[in-house]
C-alpha cells in the first residue's frame, strides 16, 4: 500500500495530525518535498510537538521515517529539531530515520537571500510574497541551476570543499548586489563540519530502501507539506511555495519514481485558513475574522504569524481535490465551528457579474468575489463525539453538503487536536 496524505487547501489543514493518526497502519512515513517552512502540529500521549523537517511518523516507534530527495534540508535546523525531540524522549537512530543522499542542503546564504529579497520586494512594491524567510525559494532555485549541495556530498567533504569556492563566488555576486557582506568560505566549512557531520550516519539511497520495503509488502505513507493551492505549478503563483506539494509528485520526491500510489487521502479543513500573502477570495475581515481565528487557534506553527481565515471555500477545495487526485477526504477541525448558529459556505465566485465554479488563473482570482450560502449550525460541543451517530443532525448535514459540493467521500472527521479525537464516517 502506497498512500499519499496531502493538503487540499492553502496548508495547515492538519496533515501532521492525520499522519500521526493514520500512521498506525503504516511501516514507513516519507516526507517528499519542502523544508523547514512546514509546521506540522501533533498532539498525542507523548506530548505536543511541532515538526518542521522530520516526518510526522517519527513519534511512532513502529515507523521508519524517510526524508526524500524532493526535500530541502536546513542541516542546522534538523540537528536542533532532532535534539529537541530526543530531549522529549523520542528515539531517533539510523534505523528509524533515513535521509536521501539526493536531498538538497539549505545553506545560511539561502536564508539570507530569502530575507534580502522579501525586504527588497516590500520596499519596492509593498507586496512581498509572504515567504517564511527560511531560504526555501532560493535553495530550490539553486537546485534547478545545479548549484546546490546535496546531502550525499557530506559523505565526501573533500570534493564538496573543492566545489565551495566557485559556488560562493557565484552566490556572492548576488549577496553584494543587495549591499550585504559576502559569505566566507571558512564559515561555510565550519557550518558543514558542525551540522553536517552528525547527520552522516542517516544518509543513504532512500530509493533503494523504499523499493525493498515495498517489495517486502510494507505499507508506505507519503506526507506532504503545505496544500494544493501552494503548489509551484498549480497554486496561486507567486504566493506559493517553491516545491510540488501535490500527491502525483510523491513517488519522485521520495526517490521511487518507479512506484505508483495506491491512493491519495486529502486533508481538508472545515473552514478556510491561509498564512501569508496572495488572493484569498473567501477571506473574512474584522470581527468575523477575529472570532474564527481565535476559535481555530489560527497562528502559524512555523512562524507564529496570525493566519487569514474565512468560511469553507467549495471552489478552491474542488480544485484542490482535483490537483491531489484525492480518493477520499479527512475533514479536520469541525469542532471549531461548534459555537455558530449559522455557518457560511463559499459555494461559487462571482466574476464580472457572472457566477463561476471553477478555480481561475491567479490574476483573475483577484477580481473574484465570494458567493456565500448559509446553513444551520449545530451550536453545541462535538469534541467528545467519536461515532457518526453521536454527531448532531446539523453537523452531519454540513459534512454531507461538503461531500456533495466537492464530489468526494469524507472518510474521517476530526473534532479535536488530540490523536483519538476523530470519527470514521464509513
Ligand atoms: P499542518 O501543517 O497541515 O500539519 O497543520 P498545522 O499543524 O499547521 O495546523 C493545524 C492546527 O490545528 C494544529 O494546531 C493542530 O493541533 C490543530 N488541529 C488539528 N486537528 C484539529 C481538530 O480536529 N480540531 C481542533 N480544534 N484543532 C485541530
Ligand atoms: Mg502547518
Explain briefly what this protein structure is.
By secondary structure, the chain is an alpha/beta fold. Helix content is 32%, strand content 22%. The mean pLDDT is 96.
CATH architecture assignment name of the largest domain:
3-Layer(aba) Sandwich
Q: Count helical runs.
A: 12
Largest sheet: 10 strands, mixed
CATH superfamily of the largest domain: Adenylosuccinate Synthetase, subunit A, domain 1
Classify the helix fraction into a percent range. Answer: 25-40%
Q: Would you report the number of β strands?
A: 20
Separation of the first and last Cα atoms: 19 Å
Indicate the structural class: alpha/beta
Q: Say which molecules are bound, naming each kind only once.
A: guanosine-5'-diphosphate, magnesium ion
Low-pLDDT regions: none
Number of domains: 3
What would the principal axes of the Cα set say about the shape? globular
Strand order of the largest sheet: 9-7-5-2-10-1-11-15-19-20
Cα Rg: 22 Å
How large is the share of residues in beta strands?
15-25%
Output the CATH class name of the largest domain.
Alpha Beta
Oligomer: single chain
Mean pLDDT: 96
Q: Give the CATH topology of the largest domain.
A: Adenylosuccinate Synthetase, Chain A, domain 1
Account of the 3D structure:
It is a single chain. With 426 residues, this protein is of the alpha/beta class. It is built from twelve helices and 20 strands. It folds into three domains: 160 residues, 3-Layer(aba) Sandwich (Adenylosuccinate Synthetase, Chain A, domain 1); 94 residues, Adenylosuccinate Synthetase, subunit A, domain 2 (Orthogonal Bundle), CATH 1.10.300; 157 residues, Adenylosuccinate Synthetase, Chain A, domain 3. Strands 9-7-5-2-10-1-11-15-19-20 form a ten-stranded mixed sheet, sandwiched between helices. Strands 14, 16, 17 and 18 form a four-stranded mixed sheet that branches. The chain has a two-stranded antiparallel sheet with strand order 3-4. Strand 3 and strand 4 form a beta hairpin. Helix 3 crosses helix 4 and helix 5 packs across helix 6. The two termini are 19 Å apart. The site of guanosine-5'-diphosphate has 23 residues, from helix 1 and strand 3.
Amino acid at each position: 500500500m502506497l498512500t499519499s496524505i496531502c493538503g487540499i487547501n492553502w496548508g495547515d489543514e492538519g496533515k501532521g495530525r492525520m499522519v500521526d493518526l493514520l500512521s498506525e497502519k503504516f511501516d514507513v512515513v516519507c516526507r517528499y518535498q519542502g523544508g523547514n517552512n512546514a509546521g506540522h502540529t501533533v498532539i498525542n500521549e507523548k506530548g505536543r510537538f511541532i515538526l518542521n523537517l522530520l516526518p510526522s511518523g517519527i513519534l511512532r516507534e513502529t515507523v521508519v521515517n524517510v526524508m526524500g530527495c524532493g526535500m530541502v534540508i536546513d542541516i542546522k535546523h534538523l540537528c536542533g529539531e532532532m535534539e529537541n525531540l530526543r530531549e522529549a524522549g523520542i528515539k531517533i537512530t539510523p534505523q528509524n530515520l533515513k535521509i536521501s543522499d539526493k536531498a538538497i542542503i539549505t545553506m545560511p546564504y539561502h536564508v539570507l537571500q530569502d530575507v534580502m529579497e522579501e525586504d527588497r520586494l516590500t520596499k519596492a512594491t509593498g507586496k512581498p510574497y509572504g515567504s517564511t524567510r527560511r531560504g526555501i525559494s532560493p535553495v530550490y532555485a539553486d537546485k534547478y541551476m545545479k548549484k546546490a549541495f546535496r546531502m550525499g556530498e557530506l559523505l565526501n567533504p573533500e570534493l564538496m570543499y573543492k566545489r565551495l569556492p566557485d559556488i560562493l563566488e557565484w552566490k556572492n555576486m548576488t549577496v553584494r548586489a543587495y549591499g550585504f557582506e559576502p559569505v566566507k568560505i571558512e564559515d561555510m566549512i565550519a557550518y558543514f563540519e558542525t551540522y553536517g557531520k552528525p547527520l552522516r550516519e542517516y544518509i543513504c539511497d532512500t530509493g533503494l530502501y523504499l523499493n525493498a520495503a515495498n517489495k517486502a509488502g510494507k505499507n508506505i505513507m507519503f506526507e506532504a507539506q503545505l496544500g494544493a493551492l501552494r503548489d509551484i505549478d498549480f497554486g496561486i503563483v507567486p504566493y506559493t511555495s517553491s516545491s510540488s506539494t501535490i500527491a502525483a509528485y510523491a513517488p519522485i520526491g521520495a526517490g521511487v519514481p518507479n512506484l505508483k500510489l495506491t491512493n491519495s487521502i486529502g486533508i481538508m479543513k472545515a473552514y478556510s485558513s491561509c498564512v501569508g500573502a496572495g488572493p484569498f477570495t473567501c477571506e473574512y475581515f474584522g470581527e468575523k475574522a477575529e472570532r474564527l481565528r481565535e476559535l481555530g487557534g489560527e497562528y502559524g506553527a512555523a512562524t507564529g504569524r496570525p493566519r487569514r481565515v474565512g468560511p469553507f471555500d467549495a471552489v478552491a477545495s474542488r480544485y484542490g481535490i482535483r490537483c491531489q487526485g484525492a480518493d477520499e477526504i479527512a475533514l479536520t477541525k469541525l469542532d471549531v465551528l461548534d459555537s455558530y448558529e449559522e455557518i457560511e459556505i463559499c459555494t461559487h465566485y462571482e466574476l464580472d457579474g457572472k457566477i463561476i465554479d471553477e478555480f481561475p488563473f491567479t490574476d483573475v482570482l483577484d477580481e473574484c468575489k465570494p458567493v456565500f450560502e448559509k446553513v444551520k449550525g449545530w451550536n453545541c460541543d462535538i469534541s467528545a463525539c467519536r461515532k457518526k451517530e453521536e454527531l448532531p443532525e446539523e453537523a452531519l448535514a454540513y459534512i454531507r453538503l461538503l461531500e456533495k459540493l466537492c464530489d468526494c467521500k469524507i472518510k474521517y472527521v476530526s473534532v479535536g487536536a488530540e490523536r483519538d479525537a476523530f470519527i470514521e464516517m464509513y
